[in-house]
Amino acid sequence: MLNLVAPGPKLIVAKTENQQALKQYLQEQFQAIEMNQLGLGEKDYNIKCIVCVADTVQPATGILYLGMTQTVEYVLCHLMHEQAKTLITAVRALPQVVVFNSLGEYAPVADKMQAEFQCERVAIRDVLLRENNEGVIVVFLMQEAEGKRAFYSETLFIQQPYEELIGYLRIHAPRYLAKAFAPNAWHMVDLHIYDRYEVYDLQYKRMVKAIQALGLGYIVTETWNREISTFSDPVGTYHIRLLTFLEPLELKKLLVGLEYSASNRRIVDLNMVWHNKKVSWKNLLDNKEIRKQLKDTTAPFFPKSNFFAVQNDKALLIKHCVETVQDKLSAEDKEALRELERAIVALGKEDEE
Length: 353
Hints:
The protein is built from eleven helices and 16 strands. By secondary structure, it is of the alpha+beta class. Strands 1, 7, 8, 9, 10 and 11 form a six-stranded mixed sheet that branches. Helix 6 runs antiparallel to helix 11 and helix 7 packs across helix 10.
């Protein structure tokens, strides 16, 4: 997950005297997927509900976690059917879950959060002992690999309304992470996405894929906004606030490269704001290290003092940024981005017609 704070799936505990029979019924009715660790260990964002099947006759057999793509309301309605009722002795909801990406630094983040809220530390395995659904369970992401996620065994059980708490954590996540990292280890930047074709759903998918593939950072918040263009016309833009461990100019270099498709067609404007100031491609040309990288290329590079050569310098810079992005991407990620780029360009041509 790229977001620092995100909602987890809804959890239901279903007690039964025949665990395997109930498991088979749920798999037949919902195409349920057997999962691990309350289902939170699986990287499947389509899972909306998890039924925790507990055997009351043989508790030692453990609990089965079955993930489903249906909503918790839909699942509960079906559990009221006669066939399901004969298999279930009791059913109840668990507290709602918030997933906090602590970027591998669980202890200082949890300590700071515990100092601010009325809460207690609870092991994930003990969550099922809760006999009510009041409060919120905050689980901390330890690491993320392709296909699965690992969580710390301890969670925070916080007595706060769910919507109020998740909204608060989304705003204050950087403050908690500030306790875990040195002040100069990370930066908070705002990315403004402008697409003249207004294919923002595809642009967003491409941007999220690029953030993940290139390790650009973590999305903190995102929102729609309106800005005034060069011609004083209001234009819609999509804003992403990103927590990054890259130096701002290094991030800007990659963003310049991402404005262009693999076929060197400009398909989006990605403006970057850091400390309330826009970081421009000119800032890249003003950087000695980047200018040195450009001078080492085979293409002619003009001296900084040559005013008429600025556009030539910009073209060379763009070429360098695009190549840098392509060099960092795996073959699989390149193909995934190209597929999105082809879809964006195709819809752009339709708009021009």
